[in-house]
Design brief:
This protein is an alpha/beta fold and about 450 residues long. Helix content is about 40%, strand content about 15%. The chain has a seven-stranded mixed beta sheet, with helices on both faces. A four-stranded mixed beta sheet has the order 1-2-3-13. It has a four-stranded antiparallel beta sheet with strand order 11-12-15-14. It binds pyridoxal-5'-phosphate (PLP). The site of pyridoxal-5'-phosphate has 15 residues, from helix 5. Pyridoxal-5'-phosphate binds near residues 110, 115, 212 and 216. Its cofactor is pyridoxal 5'-phosphate.
């Protein structure tokens, strides 16, 4: 089929995520390998965001293809009430790599479903109904999950939002809502604010505090040291469950197996997806502690999905985790993250529009401003289309120069596959530097 016809059929017969359908110009993918995606005209794009921050082991890994094909030959689908070898092995592996006494996993098909089911589980387990989450966070696009996320992607469905979600401000040190002098002070004030909200809401009505293991698409906002540890203490004080959303930050992305591993905290529930299979097939999971699991030995656990624990998806995940472990990708992400931090520091000297760079392992965002003192963003948060000039120009430039990554409002994301090479990072940062030269034009001295 000719190349134009492929794009035309995509546009004529399928709907694309998140936005207006008119005027779309998708990359016409032919194949992908390692850190690159190739289009049908032979142009290659350096994948500097691992697609949706999920292709952790890079593209085209033959081991996953082989594991999936083998599993399909044995058994593809049996209903979730049956036991399979691969399901048990994957469950056991997840219990081994997750912190503390997180032991049992309920498998879903993606991140939003993991969040939905985690919310149902904590409500059943605690008998309470409220869920506290951060404004600057994203937890998925189904009704419950989009309400739980606080960022503007929830606005279009606000009138039908899931009840009993309460949002709090993040400890966003670069723009701290409480006028603090340091990240630690911002953390203290955020914690005081969180506890006030818990008290105002009636602690006995709060089932869970839900947060991202490491903030992702809402701006890579780093938690102040001790923040999550103190959230854990707050949860223990009031009998609240701690739900850790590791959908984006899990499986080595941040230079530890999970984002929360940077904080030495064990949540009551962990939500997984994305890097669980590196996107080769769709799989998510809700991991619960022994204690929660035991509760459901005698109480009905009324959740279920036709495709829960699908054998082929489990096989992809199991092999993917083996690749992450055997190729030391967690350590590599940590190492490469430090290299990127040093290189972006050099870019800062060159580009006055770089206000801040927040990075943990290979989950990083450059924040662009018109002026470093006023911190006025090059594109405002939740900008309307007519305020997006700088963002659109940068995105176009990045694509022209042969790179794919996320440019959202005034943030550029740096989240390549965990096995990205130094040469690829250099190539990527060189392209990003050319895009940031556009943001520099908007700087007001
Ligand atoms: N949670 C976080 C932190 C995410 O970043 C995402 C997706 O980007 C989700 C949940 C939703 O996952 P999915 O798109 O697989 O439903």
């Amino acid at each position: 089929m000719d190349n134009q016809q492929i794009v035309k059929d995509n546009l004529d017969y399928t709907l694309f995520s998140w936005g207006k359908q008119g005027g779309l110009n998708p990359i016409n993918v032919s194949h992908a390998n390692g850190s690159y995606v190739y289009d049908r005209d032979g142009k290659k794009y350096l994948d500097f965001s691992s697609q949706l921050m999920n292709v952790n082991i890079g593209h085209g890994n033959q081991r996953i293809t082989d594991a999936v094909a083998k599993q399909m030959q044995e058994v593809s689908f049996v209903y979730p009430g049956m036991a399979t070898d691969v399901r048990g092995k994957l469950g056991k592996k997840i219990a081994e790599i997750t912190p503390g006494n997180l032991t049992k996993t309920f498998f879903t098909l993606g991140g939003a479903e993991a969040i939905e089911n985690a919310i149902k589980l904590v409500r059943m387990y605690t008998g309470r109904h409220k869920i506290i989450t951060h404004y600057r966070a994203y937890h998925g696009a189904t009704y419950g999950a989009i309400t739980a996320g606080g960022d503007p992607r929830r606005f279009p469905v606000d009138s039908q939002a899931m009840p009993n979600v309460v949002h709090v401000e993040n400890p966003y040190a670069y723009r701290c809502p409480w006028n603090s002098d340091s990240i630690e002070q911002c953390g203290e004030r955020a914690l005081a604010h969180l506890e006030r909200v818990v008290k105002f809401e009636n602690p006995n009505s709060v089932a869970a505090i839900l947060f991202e293991g490491e903030s992702g698409s809402s701006g890579c906002l780093k938690y102040p040291p001790m923040y999550l540890k103190r959230v854990r203490e707050l949860c223990d004080k009031y009998g609240i469950m701690m739900i850790d959303d590791e959908v984006m930050s899990g499986f080595g992305r941040t230079g530890k197996m999970f984002g929360i591993d940077h904080h030495n905290v064990t949540p009551d529930i962990m939500c997984l997806a994305k890097g669980l299979t590196s996107g080769y097939l769709p799989l998510g999971g809700v991991v619960v502690t022994d204690k929660i699991a035991e509760h459901f030995n005698d109480n009905p656990m009324t959740i279920g999905l036709t495709y829960s624990a699908h054998s082929v998806l489990c096989a992809a995940a199991l092999e993917n985790i083996k690749v992450i472990e055997e190729e030391n990708l967690v350590e590599r992400a940590a190492e490469m993250g430090l290299y990127i931090e040093a290189e972006v520091e050099k870019l800062k000297a060159k580009h006055p529009s770089i206000g801040d760079f927040r990075n943990t392992g290979l989950l990083g965002c450059i924040e662009l401003v018109k002026n470093r003192d006023t911190k006025e963003p090059t594109t405002p948060w939740n900008a309307k289309p007519n305020e997006m000039e700088a963002t659109s120009r940068m995105a176009t430039k990045i694509r022209e120069l042969g790179m794919f990554t996320f440019v959202r409002w005034n943030w550029i994301f740096i989240a390549p596959p965990l096995n990205v090479t130094k040469e690829e990072v250099d190539e990527g940062l060189q392209i990003i530097s050319q895009a940031i030269a556009i943001a520099d034009e908007y700087v007001i001295p």
